[in-house]
Amino acid sequence: MPKPVTQDLRVIIGGGGEMGVRTAELLSDRGHDVVIVESDPDRCNELSEKYVATIIEGDASRPEKLRQAQPERSDVVAALTDDETTNFAICMAAQRMSDARTVMRINETPDELYEEFVDGLVFPERLGARAATNEIEVSGVRTIEDIGGNVEVVEVEVADDAPVAGKRLDEVRLPRGSLIIVDYHGNRLGGPDTLLEAGHRYVLAVESNVADEVMNLFRG
């Protein structure tokens, strides 16, 4: 299993649709260098005004266009268009050109074929950009449900050097807007005596404005 990132990444995103752009915004906010490859000229002009990422006009599934984004200098290539076949082609092209990690958006139940050939899958669609961001960063965080609005449910693994590691829940001051739902056994709700053990995973509900603060507590 890949290790969580400990430094800034260079990420190529194939597809400048809503999911691709939101993922780029989240990655950019976290200090990563992002390049978006988008085939629609009008969309490219619109994205250029947002100053979220470097924009390259073209079809990322075409090797000559993907090569312009320099995958050999990148850490991750994330194929996030709304077409599964295109996304697979982008990942295959990236693997031929570089050692970059490949992340692919799929629209149906995960297929073993895809799991064999790409490094990470983003599914289902409704989990959206934050799930893609977590997969790109290999963050030890898995988005389970996007409730809508400002709240999502995530599964988080406690890192060895995390501030909460080895502590009971009543010894930790979680930010307002976050809640541990289930302990790692999955057979009881989180309570004051819930022990947060390194290497174990917990299910939390978090509001988006405190998500990064919560992740820092659990991931270090």
Automatic annotation (TrEMBL):
<keyword id="KW-0813">Transport</keyword>
<dbReference type="InterPro" id="IPR036721">
    <property type="entry name" value="RCK_C_sf"/>
</dbReference>
<feature type="domain" description="RCK N-terminal">
    <location>
        <begin position="8"/>
        <end position="122"/>
    </location>
</feature>
<keyword id="KW-0630">Potassium</keyword>
<dbReference type="InterPro" id="IPR050721">
    <property type="entry name" value="Trk_Ktr_HKT_K-transport"/>
</dbReference>
<protein>
    <submittedName>
        <fullName>NAD(P)H-binding protein</fullName>
    </submittedName>
</protein>
<keyword id="KW-0520">NAD</keyword>
<dbReference type="Pfam" id="PF02254">
    <property type="entry name" value="TrkA_N"/>
</dbReference>
<dbReference type="InterPro" id="IPR006036">
    <property type="entry name" value="K_uptake_TrkA"/>
</dbReference>
<keyword id="KW-0633">Potassium transport</keyword>
<dbReference type="Pfam" id="PF02080">
    <property type="entry name" value="TrkA_C"/>
</dbReference>
<comment type="function">
    <text>Part of a potassium transport system.</text>
</comment>
<dbReference type="InterPro" id="IPR006037">
    <property type="entry name" value="RCK_C"/>
</dbReference>
<feature type="domain" description="RCK C-terminal">
    <location>
        <begin position="141"/>
        <end position="220"/>
    </location>
</feature>
<dbReference type="GO" id="GO:0015079">
    <property type="term" value="F:potassium ion transmembrane transporter activity"/>
</dbReference>
<dbReference type="GO" id="GO:0005886">
    <property type="term" value="C:plasma membrane"/>
</dbReference>
<keyword id="KW-0406">Ion transport</keyword>
<dbReference type="InterPro" id="IPR003148">
    <property type="entry name" value="RCK_N"/>
</dbReference>
<dbReference type="InterPro" id="IPR036291">
    <property type="entry name" value="NAD(P)-bd_dom_sf"/>
</dbReference>
